[in-house]
Inverse folding.
């Protein structure tokens, strides 16, 4: 008797990391320099096309201004607003994590609303800051497939059933050893 087991293909969701690379600051006060810039990334399910000022909540993020790096483990990310084109690429944004002491790294551009502005401000209470206006950076994205938990559970169950059946039947050509008399 043959055992046939159908295991469906894994239904994958998509997770995308969007990365921003800003241009060098045009104004800078120490500790910043004009060779620093805002760079960063956030990870989220793939963005839908044609979004206009859509608030999102990233799974994780990290933004740097060349002096400090703010991440989901050392800062608070307020609202993230995103605009996308017909293919889902980012065309406008407003992102600005705030560190525990009030330091900030922000980047923003809204089509037809306000010009590009990349800003760094550190340390809190000082006048140290840097910015770049009207010279927007570029976004890139990398998408990866992630198996859905239910698909992984189904596949794991199927493998366990196969292992159980193989163990019960024993490998072909190998006989179990006879029991030793007591």
């Amino acid at each position: 008797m043959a055992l046939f087991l159908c295991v469906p293909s894994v239904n994958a969701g998509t997770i995308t990391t969007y990365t921003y690379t800003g241009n060098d600051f045009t104004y800078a006060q120490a500790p910043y320099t004009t060779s620093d810039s805002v760079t960063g990334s956030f990870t989220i399910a793939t963005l839908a096309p044609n979004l206009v000022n859509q608030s999102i909540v990233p799974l994780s993020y990290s933004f740097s201004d060349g002096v400090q790096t703010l991440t989901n483990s050392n800062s608070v990310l307020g609202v993230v607003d995103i605009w996308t084109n017909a293919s889902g690429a980012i065309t406008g944004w407003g992102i600005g994590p705030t560190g525990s002491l009030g330091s900030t790294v922000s980047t923003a551009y809204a089509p037809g609303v306000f010009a590009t502005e990349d800003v760094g401000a550190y340390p809190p209470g000082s006048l140290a800051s840097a910015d770049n206006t009207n010279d927007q950076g570029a976004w890139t994205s990398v998408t990866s497939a992630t198996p859905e938990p239910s698909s992984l559970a189904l596949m794991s169950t199927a493998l366990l059933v196969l292992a159980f059946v193989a163990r019960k039947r024993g490998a072909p050509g190998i006989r179990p050893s006879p029991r030793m008399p007591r």
